[in-house]
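Input protein
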Amino acid sequence: MIWRILFVSLIMVTGSFGLFLWERSLGTSIEEARTVTVNTLVMFEMFYVFNSRYLLQSVLNLHGLFGNWLVWLAILLLIAFQAAFTYWQPMQVLFGTVAIDAHTWLMITAVASSVFILVEIEKFFIRLFMPKVTVGNNKK
């Protein structure tokens, strides 16, 4: 578990801070770079929640991705909250955020999805090289 926490944290910090530095290198304002960073971190969490369904087994199946409708409800609520955080003027004033364009959202989504892909690859290699690894009596 410590490995997974460190692995996922490294992915999220690298991606979030990397986009912050990228945005700043393009000359964007600190407010826009900060908005991108916060949205990236939240998107990372949205993608990682799916990996968390199974500790070692892949979630790339119907039950893994769609087995809990409450996860999808939570993600829809998070998207609504993030939209308010990013575009609703009172929240922009409160948090110092600015509106971002569709291209930036695509970049955020691409970077944030890396946690899903990398953790699935990690689980594959754990199953491949350590097939006897289990957590309690649960092979998941």
Remarks:
- The chain has six helices and no strands.
- The chain has one domain: 2-129.
